[in-house]
Predict the 3D structure of the following.
Amino acid sequence: MELRLWIKAARGRASALADHLHIKPSYLSQIASGGPCSVRLAIEIEKFTNGAVRCESLRPADEDWAYLRGTAYSSSGAKLPS
């Protein structure tokens, strides 16, 4: 799921997530709009959203997430055939 969609799904999510990450809501908005997101923030966002927003959707080209996870997932989160 995209971060912007996760945020829009329920009132107060953006504020709660920004507080948890210790960042300004305006920076979270930039990330949700496709702006830069550090690996650390991507991991924390995935944890906070209980996996609804995956690191792959925040940093699709920067890391080999499938290798790091030990699985083969596409950037959309769909499992790829072996």
User: Anything to note?
Assistant: The mean pLDDT is 87. The helical segments are 3-8, 13-21, 25-32, 39-48, 55-58, 65-69. The chain has one domain: 3-69.
